[in-house]
Amino acid sequence: MSRRSLYGLYPYKSSMIGLENLGDPSGNWDIVETIGKGTYGKVYRVTNKKDGSQAAVKVLDPINDVDEEIEAEYNILRSLSNHPNVVKFYGMFYKSDNLSGGQLWLVLELCNGGSVTELIKSLLMRSQRLQEPVISYILYSALLGLQHLHNNRIIHRDVKGNNILLTTEGGVKLVDFGVSAQLTSARLRRNTSVGTPFWMAPEVIACEQQYDYSYDARCDVWSLGITAIELADGDPPLAEMHPVKALFKIPRNPSPTLRNPEQWCRSFSYFISQCLIKDFEARPSVTHLLEHPFIKQAHGKDVALRQQLAALIQEQQEIGIIMSLTSYRHERINTRKTLIIQSCPDDDLVNLEFLDEETIICHLQKRYDELQVYTYVGDILIALNPFQNLSIYSPQFSKLYHGVKRADNPPHIFATADAAYQGMVTFCKDQCIIISGESGAGKTESAHLIVQHLTFLGKANNRSLREKILQVNPLVEAFGNACTAINDNSSRFGKYLEMKFTPTGAVIGAKISEYLLEKSRVIKQAVGEKNFHIFYYIYAGLYHQNKLKAYRLPEGTPPRYIDSENCKVMQDIVSGKLYKEQFDAIQECFRNIGFTEEEVNSVYRILSAILNTGNIEFAAITSQHQTDKSEVPNSEALESAASLLSIGPEELQEALTSQCVVTRGETIIRTNTVDKAADVRDAMSKALYGRLFSWIVNRINSLLQPDMNICSDDLYGSLCMNVGILDIFGFENFKKNSFEQLCINIANEQIQFYFNQHIFALEQMEYQSEGVDASLVEYEDNRPILDMFLQKPMGLLSLLDEESRFPQATDQTLVDKFEDNLRCKYFWIPKRVELCFGIQHYAGKVMYDVNGFLEKNRDTLPADIVVVLRTSENKLLQQLFSSPLTKTVMFLACVWPVHRCGVFTVNVCVQVDTMEMMRHPEETTNMRRQTVASYFRYSLMDLLSKMVVGQPHFVRCIKPNDDRQALRFCKERVMVQLRYTGILETVNIRRQGYSHRILFEEFVNRYYYLAFRAHQMPETSKENAVAILQRAKLEDWVLGKTKVFLKYYHVEQLNLLLREVIARVVVMQAYTKGWLGARRYRKEKEKRSHGAIIIQSGTGRSAISRTHTVSLSCFLAWRGYVARQNLKQTKKEREEAAVRIQSGKENFMFSNEVHLIF
């Protein structure tokens, strides 16, 4: 069983697309440039190798991402793209690749005019509009395309301006058939609620709630009517609303009309009214609409109108307006004597003669007292936090840990980074470094050092890239780390950093994935803890720059979100330099990574707005009929927050103090109580910070993606290799543990399970299947605990989600549900303690306070807040609340279809769930609501899927004491951590076991240079594998049925020998090639100058002696004369040749030889 299948990662395989029947695109198409990104892959401009024509290709990478939407589009394009108003389909291709799993290439017509939406918006920016005949022509062409589809029983289901593209010749093309439906004789209607909210027909929306309802092809007619209004007004009706609200309004409101009907002819308004008849049974079909008077005015004039449209497109492209709208969417040295560079047997616990807990503890304490903070357990590194700066991380130390045998140097974090790097380059396989340990054990700093060393090993082509990568961690940690009771720089989110390398090992980029940001810290912190670092940095930085007023921040007292009775915030800001220095460092990080000044200013404004929002207070308004209404008494804080968010204060106050509910077609305004308004305020602050954090991570990824000149996009997925570094919050057990600690500890349970599987379970399974005799090691399997948390439907998280769906549920009913269903030894309810439960984690017992569990899991953000924030004039803020979040609550920036002048991209409908059950106006989505627990489950799956594809390397961080004191070693605390992390069992299995198992074929192909000549290709047999092992003088290896079993140090020795052999071969090849080149040059010269003389000297003398002895003397005299004449010229040429090839000896010998002949 492979590791991938062990974790249940089963790839989806297409049942409709026969990959084996698709051709390779490499023979027909060359990629020119990237022109856009979609959900399933990127879109490129390509050139046909045969005729030079251009097209657009959507690369679906990896192939496992193929699903029903792609199959639907493929089948429709393959069958129906032969219509002038449907985008042309040039074919589907399959590019096989063993590393990435292959790519599907969907090659389509390149539409250079952009979408009709872009055209109308560019005109409106210039106070112009489309003329009615042109609108008639566009709608006429779209109707013809839809008629072609409907006649073939296809419903488009996503007709809108962005899916009607234009060519520079004025052609009108329908695109994007990802959610199209195929009707059959047995099924003439459909009942799936899909589409883009503002364009969806009432009957399609109704299918979401009324499962017995259905619709036919005339839903496309409604969408075309909305598109007609879009062509006139620039936006669809209700565009100013939140899309969820729009879905409520469309079935209940009267049919929409033009914004200013008096500016348009009656025929146009009548056409729209016919398209927007709410009863679809009475709505005309596409065929009937083609005979409508407004449409008939385009009959017979299509050529002239086409030319008029082409001229309009050309005019807009020359002005450059369309291009500006492409992103618009409704996207050792001199150290202490103890730090000597020598290795000793004590470096590895596996080498200890006597092994028990006390021996290991004493050994670690002795090394720690000597500032030897690193120790090996086989190929696993133990890192004890020194709680002080050490001088063992300089560039000189980096040079020591570069491609050398591990035993040559003492244990070091750089050695682990080097092992991962060498493994990637040698075996062409992704690597993963998992850093684990308690909070405060030094995981974040270890991750910093690994990135530092990998950047050194990767030798980036330019210094700028190195600086960018090295400054990613400080920037992200300023926003994602905070001071807790046990750690001054605690990670409050999970971070997986992937460093990208070429096959030769050069670093070319990086990518971050972030998980489970603790957003609740923004609004409230436990006693003795602080908010995220960035809030203190920015307040101190602006204070010392005298810019607090510019960002409307109070000067006398700190904002409520960062104020604390136990922390002297203002004193630290005014008199201390730390916060100011950190602010300056963050500004430098922003600049070096590549953020623009406008982006940085927007970030500061949003952060300042969050701080001002926290200062907004609420007071109750009591009247005769209403006692639950609230208002904002401190309008200054409200106005400051609204100003920084670029929205109106009245709208913000209304969204905070009331909510809009649609019931039975009526809109009801409900006022919020003081407590409810405060909850809405805090929810808005959390949402602002969470989305801003995700945007920063996404922006970093875009700025650190591989250079197109170094690694082209088609090579990016298949040839680039990764080293991933996991830095996730450690196990936590505070005096009061809440929902956040539960999620953190479940994540740590999952990481511990992965460690157990890799170190113990998988190894023992392999021994048994290969018939290798190895004693089994007892270890604590935490799978039952994970099952208790994650299984469905009776796991703790599932029960939490179930209770969260009941409006009347309380924290007490949640505890009761847990007690009734979680009957196992790992869970208990303490007596005489209300609203608490206990969990026996792998790291120990933890008590959880259930207060607030349900509310934190729901994490509700009212739609009114989203609507208000989307009206902001701040472009970044608009983007934060217009783009959806992925299932792991990460910002999805590159999901929208991109159109620009001269470019065609395929619009992809994406199904995305967001925390606030909100949908983007340009998105087709399912209407489901997710909880924090659901997103947490998706995050664990996503994280594990990234980890299992690479070869793992483990770093176990240990906290020697709880007081963060240097050189203080608490045996009891260290013992506890060694026990629950399985270090003792790891020592046993690394001493007895075999960490590397390699197939005979792979082993012989990889290492045959060590026992055979380079030109030989030995048979990949067990015997040849044994010959290699014996020639390498290795001991204690074992042969299985199909594999060689090696200890961790065997592979290191083999790789070192292999590098030495290859280095010698390279030198020998260089010398040989040089010698052969010089030899060929000399021979060629000799052949040209004296070949004729030598041949005649040998053959002529023999012939004359046999037949013409009388004339021999005469002939020799003549030949001597000729030779002497030639010799003069030859001497001159020899001198020149001697200078060039420095072969004076050969010239001397050749001269003597000539004189002897004559």
Overall description:
Keywords: Actin-binding, ATP-binding, Cell projection, Cytoplasm, Cytoskeleton, Motor protein, Myosin, Nucleotide-binding, Repeat. This is Myosin IIIB. It comes from Amphiprion ocellaris. Its main location: other. It is found in: Cell projection; Cytoplasm, Cytoskeleton. The protein is an alpha+beta fold and 1158 residues long. Among the domains are: 5-108, Phosphorylase Kinase, domain 1; 116-324, Transferase(Phosphotransferase) domain 1 (Transferase(Phosphotransferase), domain 1, Orthogonal Bundle), CATH 1.10.510.10; 463-487 and 519-623 and 638-734 and 870-882, Four Helix Bundle (Hemerythrin (Met), subunit A); 739-850, Methane Monooxygenase Hydroxylase, Chain G, domain 1 (Up-down Bundle); 1069-1157. It is 46% helix and 12% strand. It is built from 41 helices and 28 strands. A 7-stranded mixed beta sheet has the order 10-11-25-12-21-15-16, sandwiched between helices. A 5-stranded antiparallel beta sheet has the order 1-2-3-5-4, with helices on one face. A hairpin with a 2-residue loop joins strand 19 (658-663) and strand 20. Helix 15 packs across helix 16 and helix 27 (739-770) crosses helix 28 (783-790). The longest helix is centred in the last third of the chain and has 60 residues, at 1048-1107. The radius of gyration is 37 Å and the shape is globular. The termini are far apart.
